[in-house]
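Case study.
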Amino acid sequence: MAMSGAGLQKEGRTLESDMVFKAIALAAAALVLAILGLIALSMVSQAWPAFKDGGFDFITSKRWVPNDPDGPDGPLGPQFGGLAFLYGTVVTSLIALVLAVPVSLGIALFTTEVVRPRLRSAVVTVIDLLAAIPSVVYGLWGIAVLAPNIVTVYDSVADAVASVPGLSTVFGQGGTGRSFMTAGVILAIMITPIITSVAREVISTVPDGEKAAALALGATRWEMVRGAVLPHSFGGIVGAVMLGLGRAMGETIAVALVIGSSTQIVGNLFKSGNAIPAVIANSFGESSGTYRAALIGLGVILFAMTIVVNVSARIVVRRAELRLRGAA
Amino acid sequence: MPKKKTAVWLSLLLAFGLVAAACGSDSDGSSDTTAADSSGAEGDYAGLSGSLTGSGASFPDAFYQEAIVAFGEVSDLEVTYNAVGSGTGKEEFGGGLTDFAGSDSLVKDGDGPEAGSFLYVPTVAAPITVSYNLGGVEELQLSPDTLAGIFQGDITTWDDAAIAEDNPDAELPSEDIIIVHRADGSGTTNNFTKYLDKASDVWTLGSGDEVEWPTSSQAGEKNTGVAQLIKDNEGAIGYVDLSDAEASGLTFAAIQNKDGEFVLPSLEATSAGLEGATVNDDLSYDPLDAAGADAYPITAPTYILVRTSYEDQATRDNVVGFVTYLLTEGQDLAADVSFAKLPDSLRTKALAQLENVKVG
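After joint prediction, the assembly is written out as follows.
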């Protein structure tokens, strides 16, 4: 710094401008934290009536009773247990990751390590186009095309595994085609471009020297990828997957349209369920009082989930980097 | 210097934006409302001008939009209605953001508007159909108890004894029943569950914009989403308003009314139900499970909420003028969009209600 900056320095101004720069940068960083904190605070305070009423039932009960079933005089009242929605969010996001991650990494490696440059830009453009499609379009395609037609696929899969214990529970007879699985498939298509493009950027930063060294040692192309490319870019790939997971967990419209909106926890992925963002989007407009508080409470849960996912991803990355550094 | 060029462009853009904004506010200012004649007599809306905003129920939206277009031909008053849902509509109205609100349900404490600060004006009503998709079964009759049993998941197959009893002549398949309901909070759900609560003793889920439907049931977005689900799935049954059900070509069930007759949903049967409904002093009324041999029992009322007093004469006249139009000439437009007009007795009361709207 001192050496290269010597020509830029003007006498006596360094300290001043440095301090201004520092203050601006600090303010920007603090602003982000403050916004995040204020959002969390206001959401929790607005959701408080529901948390106070329900206690831990809010995340451990699967009964979601928005109305007062026997009127104001009866003993029953509204109940808010969001477990079924929590389950739906987790299950659909996991399906999306299981389907999207191998494909995305495959495309990323294909475009960086395998294909000729001219074809590469064509492939990349097409993948990036997928990211530009609005989610409501995916949702409409889901209900109009995918859901009605995929039922036969579900049914034949269910028939094929009917006698296998375990599998027959996970892939049982479906219903209308609006299901955890359909939502997962749509989410997978939606998050593939994100994971692909981030992973591609990360992989392209692997030094050519390391790759050449691996090849020079007699490694095949796959051995080179496994030995030089993947270890070097592991942290970035995890980051890419987490970005995709974040989008999958928060996706609202497409999921709301194809998941079927049933409040249930079943192992059968071909059955319909519901997810947190979908519930909030569907019900918020007509909600009031404790019900509204409960919906905001679901938002708080989702917020907490994304934080947990991000923090644990960071831990995974740090551990892996330490291990790699130790090995090197 | 590329940086300087960018700066010049940016400042040009900014300046342009400011000028545009200034122009915008100018033109807004020039269209200031001139105080209209306070006559508000039927058929004379030419004196009204300015703008009026309302928001609320999506259920009567088709009718209001139709009426707003027709109203624009007889008046300079510009009316906007946003179908944001009854709950949000009441909130915005209570918060003073809108001049009137549309609502399918009555105002409860905490909804927004304070008691005594608003009046109910009924506008139109529409039947809620029970639509189904069952190949080979063209006619289906359902009693309230059977309907309740189906929608709370007690009756799970189409050849159930209870359905067979209502339909002695039909050949019912052993298909599973797929219950379809609204995914979003909705006045349609509220009216449908209110009907079941009122008409059937076996119904246990209560009523509301959303209820705890059986876990295996499916849901669609808005009336159109429910209609689509029913259309796509053999064995499905759900509740859809008449216009969307007709537009999707669905088959309706005939529902047993209070007099024991099975009646198909139609505008005539709905009007018959409105005749049999009891009207409260504040003009709220309950047409569900109404008496009368021809009455279709599942009918949703809808109201416009107006303030008891508006701040200035012009707004008051505009609101009264538009709502008067809805209750007079506008009523003839209702049938075009599958809504039933109000019976004359109720319409007269509604018009009289408008005279209680004051200034100050």
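Observations recorded in class. Chain B touches chain A through 38 residues (CB under 8 Å). The longest strand of chain B covers residues 118-132. We will return to this complex in the next lecture.
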